[in-house]
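hey can u check if this looks right to u? its 178 residues, i copy pasted from the old doc so theres a chance i mangled smth
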Amino acid sequence: MYRSLLLFCCLMLGSCGNVEVDHYVGEQPPLDLPEFFSRPVQAWGMFQKRSGEVVKRFHVRIDSHRDGERLILDEHFIYSDGTRQQRTWTLTPDGPERWRGTAGDVIGEARGQVAGNALRWRYRLDLPVDGRHWEVDLDDWMYRMDDDTLINRSSMSKLGVEIGQITLFFRRLPEGTP
């Protein structure tokens, strides 16, 4: 009996996290990255340890522009401890509903796929932590909620072990906002 219960629990745990982005293909409104980022965007977020403790909060201003097919996202972070960070993403279409991206602190290339209202985006990041640098993996899921709102949930792991979660809420600014 206990063996059967243990086997069942292991099978259930093994099936967690297996949702693919294609699951959202019919969801609305559709996520069109160049269209969503065609206006300035503000975002608010937090990083939580595995325990759920919020260890960092932040605000981001994102300005973007097109360079041919490429979408350039210029992100400016202000963290709750007063520190600031800037990251510039260069996103390039990589086939139907697929994107690849680079940024200064991204190791290699990020790869992503859009389906319906969702984007799954995976990459490795060079993360400064207490004077050292960690290579961490991010598994980002973004969901368009309405014309001006995007919610992002990211799992951050090191060596295959989750170390925390990032939650972000994006809001497009009104037309003509500087």
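The chain has a mean pLDDT of 91.
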